[in-house]
Amino acid sequence: MLSEILKICRKYNIRLSPKLSQHFLHSPNIIESEIKYADIQKSDIVLDIGAGFGFLTGRLAEKAKKVYAIEIDKKMISVLRERLSRFIDSDKVIIIEGDVLSIDLPKDVNKIVSNPPFHIISPLIFRIAETYFDSEQFDVCVMIVQHDYANKMKARPGEKRSRLSATIQYFADIEILMQISRRNFFPIPKVDAALIRIKPSRRKHIVDFVTFKKVVTLLFSMPNKILRKIIKKTFSRDTANKIILELQQAGIRPEVRLRDLTNNELELLANILKKYLTP
Q: pLDDT tens, 92-109?
């Protein structure tokens, strides 16, 4: 597969840019692992983000009912149209040109299998969660991310948590399926990667995604701070005192550090703060 990538780059005069995270997976075995862990079936409608030259897209099209392939690079779209023409002609592959962070995403997707650019992982996962995790038809997201980033997403209370790890853990279950050496990519990136699987938790939430994300974004701008100090810094004195009283009534210690809050406490906290935050 590496030789084919090099051949394509020569044919289309493509110079891959590490700055744009254009590191292409060239291991057929890992692609097969992605498909296996996503349990792709003939009835599935799959989204492939950052389709690149279409190696993963083509294998997905052989297994699934339909694949949406998102790509922003015009030269790579030309490659996709040539390499996957038989799937495109039969409507098994639909190419969507544009920036995945700003375009409208297809609503009928039930699975995401993707090797997205590393530099957009954080906003991308927020976008995926907000778009698909409330949908009853959506099943799973399997993707490759930086290995250290995968570990951050699984950070537990007391560890180095972020707004991403707190938000995603509230709405989904995350597994690290396998570590992937950087040598499986061309050009070789600076870090190793990991294959992860994210499944919506399906449990009933007392706050919606937008509210929870807003509260967690506010709090985790200062993750090592004491909760009481953040409340007092953010709100007026009277409002802060009301909030602190409600926290105590809910069993949340105002002296707790943000990084030590459990997911359940974050949910209760978001439910308290939502009425005090401006829309």
A: 999 999 999 999 999 999
Range 67-70 contact pairs with CB under 8 angstroms and sequence separation of 24 or more: 67/92, 67/93, 67/94, 68/94, 68/96, 68/106, 68/109, 69/93, 69/94, 69/95, 69/96, 70/96, 70/97, 70/98, 70/100, 70/103
CA distance 273 to 267: 10
Measured distance CA(232)–CA(187) in Å, rounded: 49
Domains of the chain, by residue range, sit at 2-200, 209-273
Three-state SS at 174: strand
Using pLDDT thresholds of 50, 70 and 90, give the confidence band for residue 163: confident
Provide the whole-model pTM: 0.91
* Domain 209-273 CATH assignment equals 3.30.70: no
CA dist 135 and 65 (Å) reads 19
Give 104's DSSP letter: P
Helices (H), the chain: 2-11, 28-38, 55-63, 74-83, 85-89, 121-132, 147-153, 163-171, 209-219, 227-234, 237-249, 263-273
Interacting residues of 197 by C-beta distance below 8 A, sequence separation 6+: 37, 38, 140, 141, 142, 174, 175, 177
Domain 2-200 has CATH 3.40.50.300: no
Give yes or no for a contact between 109 and 70, defined as CB atoms under 8 angstroms apart.
no
Q: Is the pLDDT of residue 61 over 90?
A: yes
Q: Which residue has the tokens 């590191």?
A: 23
Instruction: Identify the CA nearest to 195 among candidates 112, 126, 80, 107.
Output: 112
The pLDDT mean for the chain works out to 92
Topology alike, domains 2-200 and 209-273: no
